[in-house]
Amino acid sequence: MFYGEQTYNLDDKGRMLIPKEYREELGEVVVLMRGVDGQINVYPKPFFDQIRQRVAQFGENESFRLTRRTINAAMDCEVDRQGRILIPSQLREYAGLSDHVLVNGNGDHIEIWHRDEYEQSFGRLKDQFKKKPEDFAKISEAGVPL
Question: Does residue 119 lie in a domain region?
C-alpha cells in the first residue's frame, strides 16, 4: 500500500526518482496513466493488467468509454538502475509538470502532481467534504482523525 507525500525533482530529460519506499512494491516496470484530476497515476504493472482485464468486460456507456480510452492511452515505463522513470513528454504536458513535482501515495498506486494543481484539487475536495456532514460522521465513526 502506498501512502505519504514528498516533493521530487524532474531532470531536464523528464526523469524522476521513484521514492525508495515505493520501488519494491512498484516493481521494475510501472504503468503511467492520466488521472482525472490532472495528475499522472503510476501503477505496478501486474495490478494495472488486472484493471485492464476488468474494464474490458464493461459495456459501452459513456463512463466506460472514457475509462477505456484513458486506460488504452497508458504507457509502460521501466525503472532504471538508479530508481528513476522517464515521464513521456505528453504526460508531462498533460499534468503541467516542470522541475518540481509532488508525489503522493494513494493506496494501490502513486500519483505525480504539479504542486499547485495538487493544492487546488485538495482544496476542492475539502470544500465538497464540508458540504456532506454525513460523510464526515462516517469517517469520524471509523476513527479517522481529521
Answer: no
